[in-house]
Amino acid sequence: MLPFQLGLIDGPVHIVALGAHPDDIEIGCGGTLLKLAESVPELTAEFVIATGTPLRLDEARHAAELFLPECEVTVTSAGLPDGRLPAHWNETKELLEATARGAGRAPDLVFAPSKHDAHQDHRLIAELAPTVWRNHLVLHYEIPKWDGDLSRPWLYVDLTEEQMREKVARLHKAYPSQVPHDWFDEETFTGLARLRGMECRARYAEAFTTGKGMLTW
User: Which Gene3D superfamilies does the record match to this protein (predicted)?
Assistant: First the structure.
């Protein structure tokens, strides 16, 4: 595993963000993406989404532009069946491996769903990510949902009030198809971020877990 030292990087940064569905990435780490876009002058990214209808994938491409403005971002999807990823284990693994093989450069940071996520699609992506990117820092983000599956995180990215407002606004702008859902609202997203912020002595934060990390100085 490689350390990711944002404050010490003097050059381009490349990230890979994995989602089982359109909107997973932005819900889980959208604020962190906004902060990276603000902080890293030469930022490139690959968004890899396993499932999604044409409409939802159009929304995902729009979201990538909104959350990483003025950055070079590619969005790839396999169009696998929503809710059935474990039955498509080989195709899902190949999607991730193809991303790793085809990368112009190795990622400095990989985002993936949480291994504790109750949704089988999220969990499969989470389990496969560290097996594909074995020598990279993989941060597992969390997604609030009715399953009540939030775990105990131990890594946080603090967000300003402005970054949190922008995350919520851009989620709604990027994913109009999801706005009618009762869980897709400002209170859900800011409520969790406020709780995670309290845990790390910030106003707002996004929280992550990771299997391995390395401190260097």
Answer: LmbE-like
Going 186 to 191 to 197 to 202, the CA torsion angle's sign is: positive
Query: Tokens standing for 175?
Result: 């994913």
How many C-beta neighbours within 10 Å does residue 28 have? 28
Kindly give, in sequence order, each residue whose CB lies less than 8 Å from that of residue 195, ignoring residues fewer than 6 positions away.
Answer: none
**What pLDDT, on the 0 to 100 scale, is given for residue 85?**
97
| Strand pairing category for 155-159 and 204-209 | antiparallel
Residue 214 · residue 1 · CB < 8 Å: yes
Q: How far apart are CA 76 and CA 87, in angstroms?
A: 20
For residue 150, pLDDT beyond 70: yes
| Structure token digits, residue 61 | 């491409």
Q: Which pLDDT score, from 0 to 100, does residue 3 have?
A: 45
Closest Cα partner for 142 from 25, 61, 46?
Answer: 25
Q: What are phi and psi of 53, to 5 degrees?
A: -75, 165
Instruction: Provide the pairing of β-strand 109-113 with 138-141.
Output: parallel
Residue 24 amino acid letter: D
| pLDDT tens, position by position, 33-80 | 999 999 999 999 999 999 999 999 999 999 999 999 999 999 999 999
DSSP states along 145-194: -TT-------EEEEE-HHHHHHHHHHHHHH-TTTTTSTT-SHHHHHHHHH
